[in-house]
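Help wanted!
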Amino acid sequence: MKSPASAAKYKALLGQRWPNLSGHLVVGLTLALVTLPQAVAFSVTLAGVPPHFGIYAAIWGVLFCTMLNPSRIFHGGPNTAMSAAIGVTLLPIAPPFGAEYMGYALTLGLMAGLIQLLIYLIRPLSRMLDLISEPVINGMICGIGLFLIFKSLTTFGGLPFNTEVEWPLWIAWQSFLAVLEIGNIHAIEIGSITLITCVIARQFEPLRNWAILFGIAAGTLYSEYLSATRGLQNTLVEQIGNLSSIGPVYPSLPLFSPETMPDVVAIVPGAITLALLGLFQTVAAMRRMNRKVGGYSDSRQAIFSDAVCNCLLPFLSSLPTCASFNRMWLVHQLGVHSRVAIASSALWLLLLVLFLAKLIAIIPMPAMAAVIMLLGANMINWEDIKPHFKDRREAVVFMGSFLSVLFLDLFGAVIVGSVLAVAYSKWEQAHPNISVTGNVLSVRGSIYYGSLPVIESMYHGVIEREGSAVIDFSQCYYIDQEGIRWLAAAKAGQKASLADRRRIESRRELERREAADRKRASGRRRKRDRRQRSEF
Amino acid sequence: MRMLTGKFTRIVLLLLFLGGLYFLATHKHRQREETRQAPVVLTPGCADKLGRYGLASADYYQSPYLLQRTRTSMKVRGYSDEDVRAIQRGCNIVDDTQGTLAKDKGLERWNTTRFIRGSHASCDHCHQGIGDKQDAAGNRLKGSLSLGASWAMADMYDRFTGLLLPYELRQMQCYINSSNGYKPNIADDVIRDVTAYSRFLSAALGLKIGNHYEEQGIDEIAASATPKQGDDYVRGAALYRHKCQGCHGPQAFGTEANGRVVAPALAGPNAWNMQSRNYFHYVSTILPGFICRNMPLGEENTLSNQECRDIAYYISNLPRPAGDRQGPLMALQQQMLMAVMPPLMRLTGSGRSIEAPAPER
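Answered by r_m:
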């Protein structure tokens, strides 16, 4: 047993290490309370698995991510788009909430984790994630936001889940009409009360972070009132159900057997989508939040932590994890950027689930659907979208990405988004800024196979007009092999001469600096390689 | 102050929006409830069938069909007024899915047309005899997709997905598997009423729950049930001209008279889509089975297995809508084909020989 003196010593040490520990714990509690309804709603309404999947993702996913990711603002756990992707992938394979479905959900998560690990190990692949531009990410996020609203419509109206998965817009319209005509009026009332309470609470700054909790409390109270006055057998409002069997850990195994192999193969595209969706969001969220708080952390570390987490979580009955925009935003708003606070949120959640399971069980599903609709609406943030409409090309990329979520599936959206992003940057490079003064052709930009046709047309125009041309490429920052060959051919043709107007000293200086940079970079790589070897 | 006004406006707008939706929902619910309580105007076919089967509100039900055929009939639990109306509405939906005989098809047929793209498809086209096809002697026919026998099958495993499907879910599958449609919600009245009608049919015919009757489903014809000549487009086209074109039209786009469907479309925008199980290249045994046992009307069971497969093969090569999961590009391609092919065939004379009058049936 420790003596009072040593306890005081530990307390002092703790105070020295984390001077504001109680503040961190309060932030952790807030985060846990916000995460709980999300975790339950994502797993039940979107992914089609029991609530403990989302809860374990919010406990173990958050803990693992906090341990592996050095960022002080990163909050992992269950994610809307990933949960929706699980539902979309598995609905045609097996009936939701069944044993097979859950097994496939774990297999899907594990496959996604392994794909993410592969992306981490193949460096150019992980670097590719940085090439997805902001309009593409925002377009996808808005599309997914709208998708979430549509997806929750039937649950909001207390109707059974329709297993149709294709043509989201068409189905949304049909679901809307179904809610109006045959929806459960009590469910619509509960959903509306939840929605109104959430929105009203969000208008007051001190209540803003508690809005979801207030909404769910209001919806649950009304649902309990209805049950007490009319009886649950008459209101027929679906509730979350019993969570009392949830313990700290619930080991599980993904479903791999010879009989299930055809289905496992069928969900591989879904696993790739899931892996990419997770990493896109993680990288994008890290990038945006780092810029917000003025810090920097390597996105590869986030990829590594996501990949390892997602390889482990399927063995703990958990949904896959990735960064959560809304919860990271909350961490930022609460002003405590600390891994202790984030880790404590997972522990708080575990305590809540262990001791308040009976209270969680009576939360009505329409209230959950209302929360998901609100989160979906929050993902469509006009302030984020507005800048994209100032530039036509950005607007096209944004709209392409946004519409592809609604008209294609999520995998199609990832492909369209990636192609658009690459095409966007290539288009930019393919149109260098070329000015003609007399017979001098000044090229500012890249000389490569894509931009050569543009440069050639101008060059031949000058040759026709002036008889000869001077190609000034002092402001070029990239010339590929095809460009070099074209320049050499133009020079050999006797009609063109090349000019590099940079002063000789500055050129030498530049070359010297480049050589030093190269040396330093190779030294850094060697050191990192050594360090990585020692770590493993 | 301005911020406060903004917040207030936001809350008021949300309240107005949700209030409006709630008002609309309660209005629609009331409208549906009134329709449920209103007396049902039967189609001529349903009036005849339900009259023959003695449907009436009473404490017990005794089937006149069984009494006539077996001289014995058990008394079973009867139907309330509400049950009778549901059965009548269900019969109307099966007989006249498109609602051409209804005054208000939205309410009287529970918006069934919303779940079917195109203006031809009707339950009665496959489930002939309003879901209860019989010969002149009153014998039920093999492979005639009897709704009563299908209800008696209760839950069954879907052969393709392995899912255990109760009758209601199988009914929902009809909309995507046999037409170019969209599944209604399982809680929709349209599902409930057709289930009530099917259940009544099984009682009227004396079918026992859990049994498999030969009139249930399709008597599928696999390639192994033929002389193994292979399915042939040219043979199929020739057979189509002689056996089917008279009713279904030269390009199988169906025929209509006075706004009513005489023979449904087998191809084109009003037909089933490329992911339907009627589509030969998706499931090659169902359409030949249907043709052999149910077509041509009045001459059922006269075509050989190979002939049925050839006709099905030919029909499935004609342009039709793409399935929903085939994506927007395929949908666009099929829409273009359906728009371009008919005038092109007329222009090139491809349809000339087809337009020759069909032999009398």
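OP: Thanks! One thing I noticed: Chain A touches chain B through 34 residues (CB under 8 Å).
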